[in-house]
Each structure stands twice: as C-alpha cells, then as structure tokens.
Amino acid sequence: MTESTAKISSSLRTVEWKANRVIMIDQTKLPNELVFVEYDDYNQVADAIRTLVVRGAPAIGVSGAFGLALAVLQSNATTKEELISDLEKAKKILFETRPTAVNLGWGLKKIMDIAKSGDSVEQIRELVISKAQQMADDDIEINKTMGKIGSILFDDNDTIMTHCNAGALATVAYGTALGVIRATRESGKNIKVIATETRPVQQGSRLTAFELKHDGFDVSLIPDTAVGYSMANGLVNKVVVGADRIVKTGHVFNKIGTYQVATMAKQHGIPFYVAAPLSTIDMESKVEDVIIEMRKGTEVTGIGDKKTAPDDINVINPAFDMTPPELISGIITEKGIAKAPFEESIKKLFEVND
Ligand code: MRU
Hints:
The protein is an alpha/beta fold. It is 40% helix and 18% strand. It folds into two domains: 2-143, translation initiation factor eif-2b, domain 1 (Four Helix Bundle (Hemerythrin (Met), subunit A), Up-down Bundle), CATH 1.20.120; 148-351, Translation initiation factor eif-2b, domain 2 (Rossmann fold, 3-Layer(aba) Sandwich). The chain has eleven helices and 17 strands. Helix 7 (203-214) links the parallel strand 6 (192-196) and strand 7 (218-222). The longest helix is centred in the middle third of the chain and has 31 residues, at 121-151. The termini are far apart. 5-S-methyl-1-O-phosphono-5-thio-D-ribulose is lined by residues 55-58, 101, 164, 166, 170-171, 176, 203, 242-244, 254-255, 319.
C-alpha cells in the first residue's frame, strides 16, 4: 500500500482504478487530512472496506468490483476454471467484510457473471477490469439522474436534514441523498442543510459537513440528540437520507439513528425521503434475513484516542437500523420515485426502461 496527500477538487473520485491499481480516499483521516491510498492486492481492498477507509453502500459495491479486478491480475491461473476458482476465493473474502449493504454482494455478482461469460484467461481479465471501471462511471451518472429526479421534491428556502454520509464520499462521486441536495441547488433553489453528527463513527460531522462546506453549502452541524429539538422548533422542512439495503416491502436499512430521525419526522409532519440507486434494492431478502452489522465497542467507549466510558463497560453497537415504510414519504431512485404502497411502486421501478 502506498499513501499520498492531495488538495481536494470537484473531479476527485472516492474510489478509482488507475494503472492497474485501486486508489481510494482514506476516509478515516477526514476531515483533517486528504490522503489517498493505493492498493494492488484485493486483500488490502477487503481490509479497507472492513476498517471504513472506504464506506457507504455504493462506494463499497464499486470497491468490491475493483477488488476482483485486482484478483484477476494477481491470479497465476492458466485456465478459465482456475481463474474462476481464484475469483471465488477473492469474492468470499471481499463479501465477508461488511454484511448489511446489499451493493457489495451486487457488485461482486456483476463481476463474477461477466467473468464466467469469458472464454480465456486473457479475455476474462479484460472483461472484469473494464466492467469494474464501467460500474464506477455508471455510479456517477446514476447519482446525477437520481439527483434531478429527487430535486422536484424540494422547494426554494427549504432546510433539509440528512443523517450519516450519503454523499460523494459514500459513492464514486456526487452522492445519493447529497446528490439530491446538490441537484436541488443546481436547479436554482436556495437551500440550507442540517447534518447530524452521526455517532459513533461521525460520518455526519467528519464527512457530510466536510463535503458540503467544501462545496459552499449553508450547512449546520447538530448533535444526534438535537434532531427532536430541530424539528420541534421549525428548523427543518424535509429530510433526505441514503440507504444500505431496501427490501421489496419498502423497509429501509440505513445508518444507526435513521429510524429515530424518521420517527421524529413523522411526529412533526416533516416529509422523510430516502435516495438510493436500484442496486440498493434487494428484491430477494425479507426484513428478518438482513444482518445488522455489530461493530466494536471501542467506537462507543471513546472519541478518537480519548476514552469517554468506564473500563470494561458492556457496549451494544449496531451500525444500522431499519426504518419501516409507514415512516417514509418516498424512495428516490434513478428510475423514479416510489411511494406507498411500496411493494407495488418498487416493483414498477424495475420495469422502467431507459
Ligand atoms: O457505515 P457506513 O459509513 O458505511 O454507513 C453508510 C450509510 O449508512 C449510508 O447512509 C448509506 O450507505 C448510503 S450511502 C449513499
């Protein structure tokens, strides 16, 4: 692994493929330092996903695909069968890094399908690498389309709350929920944003506040505990968040605390929207099949290096929660906006042609 630092620019990608290497922004270092890491081994990509160097559902989907692109280069296989077997091993390691976001499995499956369609080792290498790059390019286009579609839901002078980071840093670029916020501003509307801090990993303060401030948005940071206060005191008109997995009934799995934000929004009659690409919709799983990632207790017992809890305290640290469809005003995708009844409207999204 090599590291380099750089200045931020709007053409930056969170994750990209360059000269047969995967380059990522190390998100654990933000907002203090902008550091790029370069990997040439899929095991390093797996570690990067596990340790949140790269995070956010679409970004880890593309990272998984790039991990397999490294695996085709690392393999010494001389036959198609050997190469597919090496890829299956790499896929397992990449897949087991994080369980909740469906985009990871989706990205890995796309690459395995294209690999299996190749005839020779050489052809499979080319197919896999170009498909992974295509997935990265598509991610940006999808976010821009989704942003435009979602922007009609937001009005001039709205103050929009968002939770966690569903921005450029959670995707290849532009973002899902923050993509909608970007597109709303690009449509000429004057908007403000409230970002929740998003304890314990602080994706809201470290990443959302960072990228929105960098892009000149009027953004205010609040502690997670001030969601109710902000809504009760008329500081918020609408909410938009991203998603890690949406099942066909419209139940949305997203960063821990999303359920609380949605419940508060319902209590105060504030529309609550979810923005996510179709790759985040899992038409197979039921609510009870979805695994909520439990993360290490030290994320909760300290902030940075500072300990904020007694030694040996028991910790419960779920990384995600589930928001039921009755709290959701609409699910914004690149194929349109699904509204209740979600089982019907989500199914229809998959029937929309380009
Ligand atoms: O644990 P993280 O940082 O990967 O969680 C990210 C989220 O929950 C995002 O809201 C979600 O992935 C949508 S990102 C476009």
